Amino acid sequence: MTNAFLLTRQWRDTREGVVLDLWWATEQGSCWTQITGQEVVFFVERKYAPELPALFSRLRAWRMAEVELKNFHNQPIVALYFKQHRSARDAQDLLRQQQIVFWESDIRPPERYLMERFITAAAQLDIRDITQQPLRNPRLAPVEDVLWRPQLRLLSLDIETSMDAQQLYSIAIWCDAAKTVFMIGDGEFTATPESKHSVIFCRDDKECLQQFFAAVAALDPDILIGWNLVQFDLLVLENICQKLALTLNLGRAHQAIHWRHEDASEGGRSYVVIPGRVALDGIELLKAANYRYESYSLQNIAETLLGESKLITGSQRGDDITQLFNTDKLALAHYNLRDCELVWDIFQQQELLAFAMERSQLTGLLLDRIGGSVAAFEYLYLPRLHRRGYVAPNLGELESDVISPGGYVMNSRPGIYNNVLVLDFKSLYPSIMRSFLIDPCAFWLAQHDRMSDEQIVPGFNGAFFAREGHILPQVIEQLSSARDRAKQHKNAPLSHAIKIIMNSFYGVLGSTGCRFFDPRVCSSITLRGHEIIQRSREWIEQQGYAVIYGDTDSLFVWLENNCVGHQPKNAAQCDAIGKRLAKELNHWWAQTLQREFNIKSALEIQFETHYLRFLMPTIRGSELGTKKRYAGLVEVNGVREMVFKGLENVRTDWTQLAKDFQAELYRKIFNGEDYLDFVRITNDEVIAGKRDLQLIYRKRLRRHLHEYQKNVPPHVQAARKFALLSGETLRRGDWISYLITTNGPEPVGSYEVDLALLQSPIDYQHYIDKQLSPVADSILHFLDESLTQLVDQQLSLFG
Prior knowledge:
Layout: E1 2-14, E2 17-26, E3 29-38, E4 40-45, H1 52-55, E5 62-70, E6 76-82, H2 85-97, E7 102-103, H3 109-115, E8 122-125, E9 135-136, E10 140-142, E11 154-161, E12 168-174, E13 179-184, E14 190-192, E15 197-202, H4 205-219, E16 223-226, H5 229-243, E17 258-261, E18 270-273, E19 278-281, H6 282-288, H7 298-306, H8 317-327, H9 329-350, H10 352-363, H11 373-387, E20 415-425, H12 428-435, H13 440-448, E21 456-458, E22 464-466, H14 472-488, H15 492-509, H16 519-542, E23 546-551, E24 554-558, H17 571-597, E25 605-616, E26 630-636, E27 639-645, H18 656-670, H19 676-687, E28 697-700, H20 714-726, E29 735-741, E30 744-749, H21 764-780, H22 787-797
Parallel strand pairs: 3-9, 11-16, 13-15, 16-19
Antiparallel strand pairs: 1-2, 1-8, 2-3, 4-6, 4-7, 5-6, 8-10, 11-12, 12-13, 14-15, 17-18, 20-24, 20-25, 21-22, 23-24, 25-26, 26-27, 28-29, 29-30
Helix pairs in contact: 7-9, 8-9, 10-15, 11-15, 12-14, 12-16, 14-15, 18-21, 19-21, 19-22
């Protein structure tokens, strides 16, 4: 048996049945297998079985079989098998005409074949010679070594074009074996032997593409990586190939690539399947791994993660590239190759490929799948559900009038505090599902088998769950143990992937886009979470401490509420209290769940943070405390740091002035430093025009400019003015930088700031009223002061 990792999967109808084309990476190289003679299967209620032969009388190559399965209504069903997908589709049309419900018709043959064998990505193939391809019908099984991963070959790809992407200038590739640019135009072949850098000049687009295709075939990468790789580079190459009557020849074994294009109403994205190779986009992988940045441009990510830069930056980058193509092709080649190198280094540093592989192995999602939380859940859940004797419902069949609430957010107590601890429940919702056995299948079993109270665990809104036969609690327990092992082995990508997947389970069950969405099930999770947070608060307050805020899975505990007139506790005392509270609360929950429900607790509360000083602000214009907005001062390894949550300092729609002002003002107040001069000087410097570069707003266009009709926000007004002034075309997703002037918002650039674009004086009072005052007053309020008072006091001294 040979270990193999799945790269791509496709399927097609043939006269002999459905054929699955599966490409794998093995330690001996790539491998193409074909699984032939497969059938399309779906299910209908058994009572309709006598009617089906007559209904399907004109259909060929189908069969019906009794199976030991039932639907979620506890009704027995039969399986319908079809030799070809087109016949299955015709049968479904006939069933719809008769208003006969059928199930699992949307499960594609490759996914069904693999998931029913519990194969996600890594598998064992019964093959001996991978050179003879395609290999037909090898035996497949899950890998025995679940941590086995192959060494995949990567190739970083980047193209340069004219501004309208109609003219190709060059194609660069970067990998361990080659660092090459294919440049269109005249010039002599150049190479640097020690670095393997080379520039190959090509007569025209066609030769450039053919040289590129030959290089890809020779290097034979498993993975193509890039930045906006599919939506730009590959799509542009596809369009150019079509004009030249060429095939975008990137698939293994000369297999054709396949495109799917969304309508503009669906987002307008394009998707590509390259048989035997995977196209991975750095932007999409960063987002999938929950990395969040203000901008996902290659320039910003390279600066943030690598401390490196592209060789050409700024709003005129497109013109600069064209000028280099016309005047200095070697400089353009250097720039093109540099982008490939930056992408390569980002993938290596952030372990993005390792993350993608671990996610694929855990979920059954292909390496290049974007999003897919629902698909991942169903891939894991369906084969286990079948073994419990059920087929899956259709989308929307389990919905009801029950409303499932969100996470519990406690009313906060606004103020400035000394010594606040944060106690955080580790993976609260997965722990609730695991502890209280919350699971769709367990809900059905409890209903259908009429179980006694001793055989079930109660939920909410009429839900209750069987103690035996559940699926999700076991899956979560296995994932949790796997994550603990990953941490022990310092396998950060695997640990990170498991965390994201476990935490997605509630979101999937609570999504109307999931076939298992049942408000009774998901409300049993959220309402239990409400109860756990509220009862934990009561327990903590019984220990003599005040809980000033709670948010879904966290509690903020003030330690000084009963110590009026006493010296505040030191850091060591606070840490000891935090650890003790967490330990004793975990013990209390273990006893409580055993006593009240006869279940084992998987709840785990951790002492997470000690804030030396902490601010819970009020809602503006109100005395009520805010939610999900606070700031605090922590000490890490002897160094004090500010932490902001939901406040202006961490929001992209506030100016740098507001962010810097808030960070320094809060720091001074929390550390007991004088802040009066700082506030007054900042105010004066804004009015004097000394902070102009910090006053810039920067916001992304979420739609095309012409789509803003009724409500035209300031950044769109500025963008329209910028388009008129510069002649540039701004697209959805572009950023616009602007200032508020006496004549409203005016642009100062898109990629780079140019204050010379301003037509009117800056409205400095706007920035005092809308940026400085809200930030200052949110904390000065608790000191019975305001920015206006401090400034007026200064004026009166010199009046």
